[in-house]
Automatic annotation (TrEMBL):
InterPro entries: DNA/RNA_pol_sf, DNA_pol_Y-fam_lit_finger_sf, DNA_pol_Y-fam_little_finger, DNA_polymerase-Y, DNApol_IV, PolY_HhH_motif, Rev_trsase/Diguanyl_cyclase, UmuC. Monomer. Its EC number is 2.7.7.7. This is DNA polymerase IV. GO terms for cellular component: cytosol.
Length: 362
């Protein structure tokens, strides 16, 4: 006899709209309506985030600053103010805490909330999400988008549907069709490499993924097959966790041409370190161990690490450690096709305070 299905939940995913850039435009009226990028605009700089005006030109997060300027000649670069972003994130987290204690932050600007049982006793998760968005606007002057559904997978996908300043509700009866229409590259857990493998197998959408049986997926995707099989059917039983412990934060880049030149290698590791610091600060995850990864032209991989007594807390310290690890390997025995950098042994800092379709009441 089959086990009874798990109880239906009410999950909200809140995602702030162009968070860093929106804070800058809020605080400096001269930047409002302008294409701006938060980050470094120099040859080694990286875009942390871009305003929607800049995104219209194709400017994206993690894009090299030089390329962003080529795409958008009028782009205004603004240095990041992480203290300001953390302060606003704390305000937003305090708003969440008025409704539920089941909050799983993913970064400074997004979080899952389980409002199946919520503090005000509101039956409709849609109403909870609407009230949260209204409070964020009133108390911070910023906009947030929300996805409301019965699990984390669909709630996260839904929050991106009507950006910016939008909301999308996906009820249990609508979940499978919602996933079926979704490009597989947008499904959480399907990265660029996996998406390319799926495309090569003729899997372009959630419907294509659902059409493949579990043995087929296991043959091609190994241990991840079960997750993809359930995701294609709109199933996700992961709980909203109050603290999601990360094991590491990392960034890596594969190059079109294998790198051998010392100056180019150092420039690339500096750029990767800048990008990694943005992720570290956004996730509020500080690590004591810095690890360098090099993949050579023959696909052999080496890693080298350095550990500190206390967590790395500044971009300069991270960049210096990365350069020292790299320089110790020079000259390379052959060209590098990939460089990567990560931090491990993390200490995560938390911010702020801590049926049927009708019955679910989305």
């Amino acid at each position: 006899m089959d086990a009874p299905p798990p109880p239906l939940r009410k999950i909200i995913h809140i995602d702030m709209d162009a968070f860093y850039a929106s804070v800058e435009q809020r605080d400096d009226p001269a930047l409002r309506g302008q294409p701006i990028a938060v980050g470094g605009g120099g040859p080694r700089g990286v875009v942390a985030t871009a305003s929607y005006e800049a995104r219209a030109f194709g400017v994206k997060s993690a894009m090299p600053g030089a390329r962003a300027r080529r795409l958008c000649p009028g782009l205004i670069f603004v240095p990041p103010r992480f203290d300001a972003y953390r302060a606003v994130s704390g305000q937003i987290r305090a708003i969440f805490a008025r409704f539920t204690d089941l909050i799983q932050p993913l970064s400074l600007d997004e979080a899952y909330l389980d409002v199946t049982v919520n503090k005000p006793g509101i039956a409709s998760a849609t109403q909870v999400a609407a009230e949260i968005r209204a409070l964020i606007r009133a108390e911070t002057g910023l906009t947030a988008s929300a996805g409301v559904s019965y699990n984390k997978l669909i709630a996260k996908l839904a929050s991106d549907q009507n950006k910016p300043d939008g909301m999308c509700i996906v009820r249990p009866s609508e979940g499978p069709a919602f996933i079926a229409a979704m490009p597989v590259r947008r499904i959480h857990g399907v990265g660029p490499v996996t998406a390319a493998r799926m495309h090569a197998l003729g899997i372009e959408t959630g419907a294509d993924l659902r059409a493949r049986d579990l043995p087929f997926l296991q043959a091609h995707f190994g241990s991840a097959a079960g997750y993809y099989y359930r995701a294609a059917r709109g199933q996700d039983d992961r709980p909203v966790r109050e603290r999601e412990q990360r094991k590491s934060v990392s960034v890596e880049d594969t190059f079109f041409d294998d790198l051998t030149d010392r100056e180019r290698l150092v420039a690339e590791i500096d750029r990767i370190a800048t990008s990694l610091w943005g992720r570290i600060d956004k996730a509020q995850a500080w690590g004591r161990t810095v690890t360098l990864k090099i993949k050579f032209a023959d696909f052999r991989i080496i890693t080298r690490s350095r550990s500190f007594a206390t967590p790395v807390r500044s971009p300069d310290q991270l960049a210096q450690a990365a350069r020292e690890l790299l320089l110790a390997q020079l000259p390379l025995r052959m060209g590098a096709r990939l460089l990567g950098l990560g931090v491990h042994n993390l200490e995560v800092t938390e911010i702020g305070d801590q049926g049927d379709q009708l019955a679910l009441g989305l």
